[in-house]
Queue: 2 jobs
Job 1
Amino acid sequence: MIALCGGVGGAKLAFGLARAVAPQDLTIVVNTGDDFEHLGLSVSPDIDTVLYTLSGLSDRERGWGRTGETWGFMSALRQLGGEDWFNLGDRDLAMHVERSWRLRAGESLSQVTARTARTLGIGTAIVPMSDAPVRTVVETAQGPLSFQRYFVEARAEPRARAIRFEGAEAARPSPAFAAALDRRDVAAVVVCPSNPYLSVDPILAVPGVRDRLAALGAPVVAVSPIIAGQALKGPAAKLMAELGAEPGVLAVARHYRGLATGLVIDQADAGDAAALRAMGVTPHVTGTIMHSDEDRTRLAQETLRFAADLSAPPRAVAAHGGP
Amino acid sequence: MIALCGGVGGAKLAFGLARAVAPQDLTIVVNTGDDFEHLGLSVSPDIDTVLYTLSGLSDRERGWGRTGETWGFMSALRQLGGEDWFNLGDRDLAMHVERSWRLRAGESLSQVTARTARTLGIGTAIVPMSDAPVRTVVETAQGPLSFQRYFVEARAEPRARAIRFEGAEAARPSPAFAAALDRRDVAAVVVCPSNPYLSVDPILAVPGVRDRLAALGAPVVAVSPIIAGQALKGPAAKLMAELGAEPGVLAVARHYRGLATGLVIDQADAGDAAALRAMGVTPHVTGTIMHSDEDRTRLAQETLRFAADLSAPPRAVAAHGGP
């Protein structure tokens, strides 16, 4: 199983998948388009969100970062006149400092991530989409903004015109991602409920990824990050509108056309099921909001069963759809 | 006025000097032999001690680091299996992170230090002895140890055989130190009560410094870091014994022979005054323990008056010593 994953929503489903699937059968591929260098530190927000979520260290109330976080560093940084638009918690800093010196010492992002996951007791493989730098840039009415400047500093307020992934052309899938793409026994590809433009597209922009995912012959199912025209968190719906689509599950399905043949949608969007079918996308309607660990595991299990059904012989589908 | 200064004791007198002398007339030259690279960060412990002390940010109870410090970073670092033998407080980290990226961006240690001092509201010039890396190495029975490995990790326990300053031969005084050494109006040179071997010797090891200090023609007075055979803090007395001297103010005077002609000693060592005079070193006996800001200022003022007396025409001295 391969899961493509970005920020907070994606990490929640990844948590469920890690509970539902044996470690050797799951590779969680994480977006690194959000990565950036800040104050000389290498920050990988999506990787950290997945690491914190899977190790139970994430802050559920704030919705990002680590639980039990403190802010002494930021307060002292402000006092020194340092750049304070990006919040770095004291505990979170340990991750960035460790990563930064190890990268500088020649370790790859894959190696650093694997060691950290191991240390935090995570058995499932969490792998960056690529070890080469890919940097998401949002073209806005105010000019190009690097991802974190757009997302954090400008609070995703500027109107987006286009999104590009600098460095993607030269990037290659990370070794563990490439190995997963080479397996013959991949049961399913799950696109987590992450921002399609900002979290999943960077992964798909790595040359060869799209074709190799299709060539697996496994069902590809996405879980919609959009519920009733809105994203639970983040600018997915706003971006959708700005980039010319009506925010909703149909736009999600269209976005993943040629990749996902199944889409898990929320009960709130059950009315779009027929339209999805008409597009050739099989819908699965369920509750997609994940409050508890049980929600995460249940949604993961349902998604996996849905994917298994999709890959069942067409005969079974015909039986349901017959006269 | 030029003050040579190292760790906590030195910083206390530097605080007093900064109160007693107009900013334009005082250059506080700080040891950088303790500097090191840790977890990819550039740490300058003595510079930070002086910055924290002069800005009122130092922790007086713990005796090092910043007041109001928290330790979330260290706790998370331990959880990640990172190197935890050197304590980095959350607030203190802001200093190291800011310094590290600025140095990497091409600023000099002098520039970074000057900016930080300004930001913290310090008017007096705090300057590194050199912008080139000089690294103190302690030769011990267990082999050579870099300064922090010796001082912090090994708690200064290994027996020292010799001390050397790697990089010193190639170092030059920092621009502001060099400018101070070029002034014709230096009223005095004060060697603060810092460890002679570990804090002051590295400064004197920068080529030309010793000769240029002597060439100023100003009185050079030291304040003894040893009181009744003991250092208030740190391994100065232990090192003295290991390097073959009997710990005491006479050994301090001998150590600074050819440099300091006056030595401020504590009342506890008044009995050594005659022996000091016999060595050609003028003693000044007073209370040298600095508990309060007032102690610091009083000792600084006394030291400055003592230096002024030393440089007074010999006639005055003869009047006192006459029959």
Job 2
Amino acid sequence: MNIKKYLPILKWLPNYRLATFNQDLLAAMIVTVMLVPQSLAYAMLAGLPPEVGLYASIAPLLIYTVFGTSSALSVGPVAVIALMTMTTAGNIVSPEGEAYLTTVILLTFMSGIMLTLMGLFRLGFLTNFLSHPVISGFITASAVIIAVSQFKHLLGVSVSGHSLPGLLVALAQALPEMNLTTLLMGSGTLLFLYATRRWLGPLLTGLGVSRAIAGSVGRLAPILAVLVTTWLTAQFALIERGVAIVGEVPAGLPPLALPSTDVSLWQQLWVGALLISIVGFVESVSVGQTLAAKRRERIDPDQELIGLGCANLGSAVSTGMPVTGGFSRSVVNFDAGARTPAAGALTALGILVVILWLTPLLRTLPIATLAATIIIAVLSLIDVHAIKHTWRYSKADFSAMLLTVVITLLQGVEAGILAGVGLSLALHIYRTSRPHTAVVGRVAGSEHFRNIERHTVETSANLLIMRVDESLYFANARYLEDQIQTLVSQRPKLEHLVISCQAVNLIDASALDSLESINLRLMDTGIKFHLAEVKGPVMDRLDKVGFPQRLSGEIFISTFAAWQHLKAASKNHHDDLEVSEI
Amino acid sequence: MNIKKYLPILKWLPNYRLATFNQDLLAAMIVTVMLVPQSLAYAMLAGLPPEVGLYASIAPLLIYTVFGTSSALSVGPVAVIALMTMTTAGNIVSPEGEAYLTTVILLTFMSGIMLTLMGLFRLGFLTNFLSHPVISGFITASAVIIAVSQFKHLLGVSVSGHSLPGLLVALAQALPEMNLTTLLMGSGTLLFLYATRRWLGPLLTGLGVSRAIAGSVGRLAPILAVLVTTWLTAQFALIERGVAIVGEVPAGLPPLALPSTDVSLWQQLWVGALLISIVGFVESVSVGQTLAAKRRERIDPDQELIGLGCANLGSAVSTGMPVTGGFSRSVVNFDAGARTPAAGALTALGILVVILWLTPLLRTLPIATLAATIIIAVLSLIDVHAIKHTWRYSKADFSAMLLTVVITLLQGVEAGILAGVGLSLALHIYRTSRPHTAVVGRVAGSEHFRNIERHTVETSANLLIMRVDESLYFANARYLEDQIQTLVSQRPKLEHLVISCQAVNLIDASALDSLESINLRLMDTGIKFHLAEVKGPVMDRLDKVGFPQRLSGEIFISTFAAWQHLKAASKNHHDDLEVSEI
């Protein structure tokens, strides 16, 4: 049972049938054709030799087949993670040097360890620190940076920079050195890809072709662009005209690599590795969940962490780069009919065939073509609709998104995510730091109590009943003290204060301290402090530290019981029933 | 009205009477006598010349009288803030050098600006990031470091270090060089202070003296120790035996100072300044609130930020150090009968008299005496009871407290607070990331719905009603998706899913995205998605982005309405009422 949890392959492999194999094989062939140029492109985006992208598309896929729980997820290099790899490793060593690949391998290894540990210790909740607006803002800004960073390849010039202003300035300065042949080929490819993506689908469906087939034809466009420009470059010796090409890709199995044991390098990389792990996991699990839901299946997020973690460990020791489940490839895999994780293993075999025997075909593939495919791929990540939607829905969430976008563009990806997470947390603390509270009174003749500002209810000068609509914890503990002090200072005749706790799911140690302070302060002023409708688990904890014994008043089962008891107790003094009205 | 809010002095000064003045004057005289040795001691603790402590006890008190809202708060140097000043400024420049005082003045100035801005922009909620266990752990660990750091003065040796292990090692190494006369005087004072604090009060009350008077006599012990040891040192020329003394304190008004405009210094100090601001404010406001409550008054936390901010700005420009409301002095001020903030201004005049004419009396005050008073003062901050109490109440809160203590002792005060805040936030995210949810069924014959695992209720195979007991936000959005996927994958006959939202006070943009995903995924599997009992403000937001129109199902006013409508709709198919029982 437990073994099957940690080795999900044991659940499906024993029942694996030839029919399923045929479906998986077809999907794997289609994904392989898509993955070859993507692997090369994302390795280039990460500042790595092209073969590293192919290496990262073999071992990780085989390993995910054993440990993964999604039947359609296509693991491998993806654009945003490639950019994060570039900025994290590039901040420490120059991408031109020997040490760069070593640094990326260590980064991959560390990310693998972190993901695996998060899975084993069920720390997946850590990914919850990333709110959707922060992720969305981060991905949009990353896409802009990625797209702009690829313009150098369209122009055939050499510039570098991690932030948008730096990139733009460097591009402008390099403009005079641009290569016209490269520009023509690159912008031609870009236009072709844009046009097919924008107009081919609607055109074909307009001609009566089914939507599924029209979509598949559209996805063939990048492959076609690769084939045509590679052939053109070889045929017309465009290299002599200055067109940059992928060049010799060494054939053969991925070489084994051992991660560096340089402690200072580990210290420099850990924040980056953590962010890569979390962003990669979030992207992967949301694709996985969407696809699983379509078949009424489910994925196990903790096991997914282990699967992706082991995939990255495998990538690191086979000279690869950080990997995760990619959105577009996974959708293609699903649509093409992948039924089990075996489709991933078959894709890995396809890439293995390419790297063993077909690398000569890739030699004259122009860099500009890869750049054009990257630009078109990441433009779909820029989600203007999500930005507008968030603006309409919540200004607070929008501000977190905007900050993430701006800081990512100006200061880079790490700073962008950290600023967004910080602001999300601050906003959450702010929102819950002033919990909704209401002074309530009795609906005449009933056992119901309602807000005195919204309903005609009975109140009493010697008794104040306050309802708190939020759990009490460190962010709102002090506010409660302050608010009670305000209410009490306005009511000279007050003898009893009751807090009605039906919405309080938790009272943490800070809030307990506040309740103790409130109790002591009210005692000093001769007011008794009571609670009502305390939930079972909350009551258990209060009992553990003897709070009910220190409380000057009582804990009532219901607000009505408090009303009856405390009204009766003060009846002798004066008849003080008042009816508030709005 | 608004002017009175920002200048609270206008509220009480017009009605100021001679009787009140007499009460304030008496309190001011008592506090002044207490404040003189404290100012010298905390300046020493912060690594500053003794007169800086006195300077910080003049302008800030006058300014707080104008801007402050607490009638009993005694503003000035305090122990924990002095330690934080020492470690923050001492990390950048050596306390021996000229630049140290400049750095402390800038730190005070920055803290003043931060507090004032937090007050003007109502950012007081930022202090809520500090949970009580973190503050309590931080103060306990600081007290240990302060006490240990003073042992060098008792031994008459010179050592330095910000962390506990460093201090202990340095002290052990310096032991052979200790001065016996200093040790005798220092430990004698320490024993005397400890004994009076521990046994004098009970002894006097045992003899029939009232508790208030016994307490006042106890507070005179430090003054007595100062007078006696100063006299002894002068009388027997103990300086020649190596007893370190305060020395010449320059007489005269505080010199004006302009804060440094060195940008790199600002960058190095801002985290420290922020932490000093927040810790100082939290200490001050909790004392202020406790004392205000005793008189059924209240303080305005936002205005307190402005008051303390301006006090620190005043301290900075008059060559002072960071100040805040101190616990013990404020209690003495209150007990001695201070009625208005004028008592603070009168205390400032008292200190002014001391610095203009009485400084020669302070010359032979031994440093060891000040060290002994500091040690006794901070030992009362070590709150073993709070640690035990937190352990019993909540292991999660205890772990945040323990981490804060350990990191503060080992790595210093900044790292300690930041680690504690980080862990508190992580624990809060963890606690709310798995909100309590329950599948509910109808209590037969009623309109009530209860957890199917705890009650005998009616359920239906085609209808699932889930109650969520928490606001939906980024930390728990993904968990909800996952949980619904699990529930749905177990129920093949399901046609309708209802989420009952009576406890949902907020749906943020992340949670909205999750609801949209859940809606789409359920649509893919032919299940309709409904909501029930959505609160007004939450509904308004959902309407703003047109969510109800995209929802495959409906939004019902009550869970019962959903039950009636959806049961009726499926009645034709099959009679599938089931009764669950536990």
